[in-house]
Each structure stands twice: as structure tokens, then as C-alpha cells.
Amino acid sequence: MKKPDRHLITSALPYANGPIHIGHLAGVYVPSDIYTRYLRIKGEDVISICGSDEHGVPITLKARKEGVTPQEIVDYYHALNKKSFEDFGIEFDIYSRTSNKIHYETASEFFSTLYNRGEFIEKSSEQYYDTEAECFLADRYIIGTCPHCGHNAAYGDQCENCGTSLSPTDLIKPRSTVSGTKPVMKETKHWYLPLDKYQGWLRKWILEDHKEWKTNVYGQCKSWLDHGLQPRAVSRDLDWGVPVPVSGAEGKVLYVWFDAPIGYISATRELTDDWEKYWKDPGTRMIHFIGKDNIVFHCIIFPAMLKAEGSYILPDNVPANEFLNLENDKISTSRNWAVWLHEYLEEFPGEQDVLRYTLCASAPETKDNDFTWKEFQARNNNELVAILGNFVNRTLILTGNYFDGEVPPLSGTDEYDREVLAEIGVLKDKVASALDAFRFREALKEAMNLARLGNKYLADTEPWIVIKNDREKVKTILNIALQITANLTIILDPFLPFSVKKLRECLNINVIQWDNAGRDDLLSPGHKINKPGLLFRKIEDEEVEKQVNKLMETKKQNEEAPKEAEPVKENIAFDDFTKMDIRTATIIDATRVPKTKKLLELTLDTGIDRRTVVAGIAEYFDPSTIKGKKITVLVNLEPRKIKGIISQGMILMAEEDDGNLVFISPTDETKNGSRIR
């Protein structure tokens, strides 16, 4: 493959309605920064682009809730997150924002180009409208009862209980989350990007031309393409965002999914007058770093937008990560179950690299992974302190003690010495190979193997003993140990920038380029090094316990927080109730529905027949434990196909305050088929 002339690295624009947490870092920003630093130390032409995503309904709702303007919300979180990234050593060439004038201009121009070419479908449709709040409702801001599993807090786009994708009109008894009132249908006009038009091109471009993409990325794209793409609205009714630049489109803005990725382009325009060189020259290699929730937008939708426009390059790779959990529980901003970056920097000042190291070492590269404070402590104490810090400290102290801080000459080598020196280059190549393939965990492991090599070499050669009888041999030993140390400043640079800077100061050297890694003459004999300082300190048990206790207190507060009783639904006529045929039944068999987390396929004896019902209860019940269970079931619900299975009815469940589900069960003596009146 031809070497690219330059690299354009983009990192997902964090949404400016909350601070950055470790899940964001592990999924996007640590790998992005590692890769960018790697390219820079190689001497490549590279720019790194990021910024705040500042439009959309969640920001308007947060502003309404707090009694401030949307601009005040995004101003606060943009400043907080920008500083957190800077303090953590995430080096973007620009950290822009989508509320900037240049972004409004860029997004408007992009839309207008596609509009003038007739790329959009214009159509009117009826959508839910909140008459009290006087606004159209995004799918996520409509809740109601799921028609599949009966969950009474399903969203307008998906039921999180059974996992079924929904449309707002599918919901039973829909209500607005903005005002709590029942929305009405109202006609509105919008513009749609016909993704189905690009279905064939995307299939070839992704499934044939990019088989080297990570399996999780490739698999998700294939799933979407196999299901068939549909036109997607690029505008919405809202007063916060980039106005649709079409006459008669007052009160409409660009949909945030269309608006946000254009933020990469506008940020580059803001950064440099040569922005087109990075976005339109085929010599540029573009890489998107994102989390798995953004795969579809960056691999299917944004490329379709760029293809429709016609003058832009397409991404070469999209190395998306999966999600990071925290102490065996999903990170949740609403429950405050997170480690916030700005709080970490306050509580562990000067120890950015410890978190960077831990998040890279346990990165969720192909599947969800877990962060625990105990692992954080172990990574620091057993690896950074005991391996890397120990080797560097011993090497520098011995050099100071035996040779007054001057690099001794290489005074003859034996076979073992030559093997160790040769291994430096081997490890450098392994690190490069892993980084080139976006395997950051592997790359970090191989980089640390260089420190392990140095530790073993000192332990095997024992210069503190040899010095008593053979000073010349100790010169060779410490020269080799110092060459390993100098090499560490190169191959660890992308991962541990703060520690490597300290190490360079100790060695009294400047930045050494990547191509020089593997050499055994980076430090010349007679070169004077400085007095060593500790790179890492041991993290004590009480520090970790404090953090764990902080999380446990958060969990306790969440559990003790008073739960608001769900309001009684609207009155119904007695005749409506009598239309429901609810009967007692027994579960004869239960199995998990393949490729789902929440669905069980139940075979029921209803006393009138044997039938299949699909229920979203797999997270609460093991199939083997509910066989023979007496239940109640709505038997005259219209059959629906769920994941290819015809479901004939709906079992009745009670939802407790903590979210657990409980069967509504008759006594064991009740015969199957008995009617509930």
C-alpha cells in the first residue's frame, strides 16, 4: 500500500451536556491520542481534530430543567472538557465547537450543495407534538407502553426492556417526557437523505474493500446493510441548532447526526487555510476514533454524506472500541456511576499516566471490559512501579554511583549482551506492528516488555556484585541498560507522555524520533545524565478504598432515593377492560432467543391451547428456573412477529421500585385457562 502523504485523525465530538468520564477515555480519546503521538514521533504529517457537539434535544431539555439557555449549558461543559483533555495530555491540534460561526457556515454549505443537486427527499409526515411545551418531540422524548412486552416506560425509538426497535406510533398510551402530557399528531415537512440509494455502494466499499476493519465494526455494518437501509431525516423541528438554509424552513434545524460530523470539517477549516488538502486530497489518510454507539454514523451515514457531496475523501479506517464498565456495572451518568476525568485529576494530581496506562491495558477493543480501582492499583504498583520504575531507577542510580552520572563505554560484549541488544529492535517492531493495526493493548504490552527485558538483564548480570571484581564488565552492563532506557523514551512516548518527559529530563536528552528506536548507541559514552527522580509512586490501599467507598455511597444514595410512584393512567371504559381476555397458564418450556440479551421464547399451556409468547425477561429469569411456573397471560392480544417468532399474547408482570420484575401468579391449585375478571 502506498505511504500516505498526511494523516487526518478525528475523535468523536463529546456531547456538551456533561463532563468526560473514563468510559469516553478508554473508548475514544486514549487510543486516539496514542495513535496520533505515534505518528508524530515518526515524523508524519498529522493533524488531530476534535471539539464539542453542542446541538440537539438533550441540551435544550437540560437548559429548560436548569432554567438557563442552551448556550450557557454548552459554554460550561465545553470549557470544562477542553481543560480536562489538556490537563490529561490529550493533544488535539484544535478543540473546536459546533456553535461556532464557521461551523454554521460549513454545515449550511454542505446541506445546500446536496439540496441543490436534488440529493434529498422532501416529504411531509405527521409527528408527535407537545401542545403544552409547543414543540415537536424527538423519538427519545416520547414514552409509553411497549406493544411487545408491556413495559410501561418504553422509548419512542426502542424498548430497553425487551430490546425491540420501535416507532413512536407503536407505543400504547404515549406521553411526552417534556411536559408529561399526551402528545398529538401534527403535520410537518422534513428533508431525508436516501441511504437506500447508497446501499450497493456501501456494501462493496465496506464488506469487500475494508475486510481489514475490526470485527466488531465490520459486523455491525454488515448487520445494518443486511437489514436494508432506509431514508433518514436530516432536519428536525427545533430552535437550537444550525437553521435549515431553505426558504420556508423557519423553525427547523439540521438534525444533530447530520450536523455533528460536519464539525470535523469546520474545525479543520478553523485550524488551517489548507483544510482542503486534508479533506479532499487522495494522499490523505483519514481515521475516525469513536465508540461502538457511533459506528453506524461514521461507517455508513457520514460516508454516504461525503459520497453524495462528491469532493471529499472517505475514511480509511474506523477503529471503534466497545464499552467500558465500572466495578462490574454499566457506567451511568444519570446515576453518577462514573469516574469523572476532572475529579480524577484533582484527586490524583500529576498521575495522568497511571490512568492512561490502566485504560490502555484494559481497553475494550473487541468486547466490553471492566475498570476496577483494585486493578488500577495493581497496574500501578505491580507494573509501572515494580517493572518500569524499578528498572529505570536502578539503572540511573547505579550509573550515578559507579560512573559519576556519565554513560560508560561499551567495553566488550558477550553472547547474552548481544542477544539483549538485538531484542530491543525486535520489540520496537512488535510495538509498531500492533499500533499500525490499532491493537493498543498489545502494543503497550510489547513496549513494557522492553522494561521487563531491562529488569531481567540487570537481575541476571548483577552489576552491584560484579563491580567488586570487574569494573570493565559493569561499564558494558550499564551502557546496555542505559541504551534500553533511552529506547524506552521512544516506544513509550505515545502511551506515557508525562513519564517519558520526566525520563528524558533524567537522561538529559531531547525527543528521539521513532526510526532511531532499536539502536544501541542512542547515548554516547561520556554523556552526562541528571540525578534520577521517581517516575511513579506506590498507591496505597486506603486511597483505593476511598474511591471504592465513594462509588458505594453513590450506589447507596441511588437505592435510597425515593422513587416517584408512576401516575395512574387515564381512565378507560368498563367495556375496554372486558375486551381483554386474561387467563391463567403454565410455562411448559423456556429458551433464550438467539442473538438477544433480553428475550425469552416461552411455550405456554393456557388451558385452551399451547402457544408461544416472546417476553423481555431474560435479564431477570434463568429459563431453567421458570419451567412449570404458574402465570397470567393476555391471550387475545394481536399476534406480532418478534425476531422472527410469532408471539401470541403477553404475560403479565409487576415491576418493583428497584426495576425487578415479578410474575403475577395464581395459586398452584388454579387450573390453566381460568379467566381473570
Give me the secondary-structure topology.
Layout: E1 6-11, H1 22-41, E2 46-52, H2 57-66, H3 70-88, E3 94-97, H4 101-116, E4 121-130, E5 135-136, E6 142-145, E7 154-155, E8 172-176, E9 184-193, H5 199-208, H6 215-227, E10 232-233, E11 235-237, E12 252-254, H7 256-271, H8 275-280, E13 284-289, H9 295-309, E14 324-326, H10 341-347, H11 352-361, E15 369-371, H12 373-403, H13 415-436, H14 440-461, H15 463-466, H16 471-491, H17 497-507, H18 541-560, H19 574-578, E16 582-592, E17 600-605, E18 610-615, E19 630-634, E20 640-642, E21 645-647, E22 650-651, E23 653-655, E24 661-663, E25 675-676
Parallel strand pairs: 1-2, 1-13, 2-3, 14-15
Antiparallel strand pairs: 4-5, 4-9, 6-7, 6-8, 9-10, 11-12, 16-17, 16-19, 16-25, 17-18, 19-22, 20-21, 23-24
Helix pairs in contact: 2-3, 4-7, 5-6, 6-9, 11-12, 12-14, 12-16, 13-14, 13-16, 14-16, 16-17
Q: What does the model show?
A:
The structure is a single chain. α12 (373-403) packs across α14, α13 packs antiparallel against α14 and α13 (415-436) packs parallel to α16. The strands form eight sheets. Strands 16, 17, 18, 19, 22 and 25 form a six-stranded antiparallel sheet that branches. A four-stranded parallel sheet has the order 3-2-1-13, sandwiched between helices. Among the domains are: 119-237, Methionyl-trna Synthetase, domain 2 (Beta Complex); 386-539, Isoleucyl-tRNA Synthetase, Domain 1 (Orthogonal Bundle); 574-676, OB fold (Dihydrolipoamide Acetyltransferase, E2P). It is globular. The chain is built from 19 helices and 25 strands. By secondary structure, it is an alpha+beta fold.
